[in-house]
Amino acid sequence: MSTQADHGNELIPRPELMPDALREALAVVAPGRLDEMQARKDEAFAKAVEWQSLSPVQSWVLIWARDIEIARRPDLSARYAWAQDHLEHEDQALAWEALRELSAVLDEAMEAVRE
What we know:
Layout: H1 19-29, H2 34-51, H3 55-72, H4 74-86, H5 92-113
Helix pairs in contact: 1-3, 2-3, 3-4, 3-5, 4-5
């Protein structure tokens, strides 16, 4: 596990950007997504072979690190859930605010895992 800024009440420490560490973290914060993670990993590795590039694997690592960052931090998780719940709200202004919030959460999580 790596070091990170204290955001308060984190469920687990931020995992290293390694497949096994990410899987272990996901098993704690969102075990229902393990099959999805494995399927996406298989796709990323197949593309890496096909494209003769590590970029699909690197993308897979960053996407899952970002999603785990959101799940392990109640502050981000609550904001993410609110945004998801309001994306299709009948009030267009609220729906746009939800979209902006979702984008902000994803950006904040990605920035955190790249520290």
